[in-house]
Amino acid sequence: MVPHTSDGRVMFAIPWHEHTVVGTTDTPIDGPSYDPLPFEQEIEFILDTASRYLSRPPTRSDILSVYTGIRPLVKAGAGTSKTSALSRDHTIHVDHSGLLTIVGGKWTTYRHMAEDCVDHAITLGSLPDSECRTHHLQIHGYDDEIDGLSNMGVYGSDAVLIQRLAEEEPDFAKALHPALPYIAAEVVWAVRHEMARTLDDVLARRIRALFLNSHAALEMAPAVAALMARELDRDETWVNTQLVEFQKLAASYLPESAVVQQ
Ligand SMILES: Cc1cc2nc3c(=O)[nH]c(=O)nc-3n(C[C@H](O)[C@H](O)[C@H](O)COP(=O)(O)OP(=O)(O)OC[C@H]3O[C@@H](n4cnc5c(N)ncnc54)[C@H](O)[C@@H]3O)c2cc1C
User: Fold this and answer.
1) Which protein residue has the closest C-alpha to ligand 1 atom 33?
2) pLDDT attached to residue 149
3) Fewer CB atoms near the end CB (10 Å): N or C, the chain?
């Protein structure tokens, strides 16, 4: 973690699925869009800052994938344009009609957000008061023994079931791409047990291929679509539509997709 970059932001480099995610925070934008593109200036800033700390300065050709997101921060009235100065806390808003809206917040505080929201709803709806149980709820796949950092470890207690699936059919044990650690059984698992229905459900959200290596994700897309079509009983038209849709999405993860911020 670089706590103070040349322009006063933070930068981090995090090991993730045998790759490194290098990122920074954040650039104010005028309005939201569904598919925000990375800014050329951000990429240059990250490469430049990383060069000062890594023994071999990274270049553009080291970038395997680029992604960006819009942070839903709550702005209290007019004032600062510096997004880093805005609170990361969540806000609960109750409408005249009684509609309860929760906005902002963070991944690391989601249980607290849920608790706050449900407590407000109980009061609003005059429901019987009962203590929130979130502190004691374990997430799906919870297992103390598993190393959550390894590739299969992210599945928690499901890992053993996926390994069993891989033993069922020789094809299920096959790697999907030489540059990434994923096997066919993970695709079959995602369709059968994780409600994956589209190619990007699998390649972006069930396994993280698109985020880790966009070119590799594009190269493995036909094999993944074929596996999915077999599981979902879909025809070639479906496969082709999925491939076209995925190519459109993946284009914005290629390093060359960056746009110059005006
Ligand atoms: C730049 C940035 C930095 C952040 N940094 C931090 C941080 O340091 N610490 C922290 O705690 N939080 C951080 N956050 C906030 C955190 O990422 C969010 O609070 C958290 O991800 C919200 O989780 P979620 O599951 O509600 O939504 P999301 O993580 O947004 O998940 C929604 C999912 O639904 C998928 N989806 C949407 N539409 C469809 C559809 N039609 N079909 C199928 N899938 C669909 C999306 O692709 C996405 O995967 C950051 C956010 C951003 C943008």
Assistant:
1) 205
2) 53
3) C
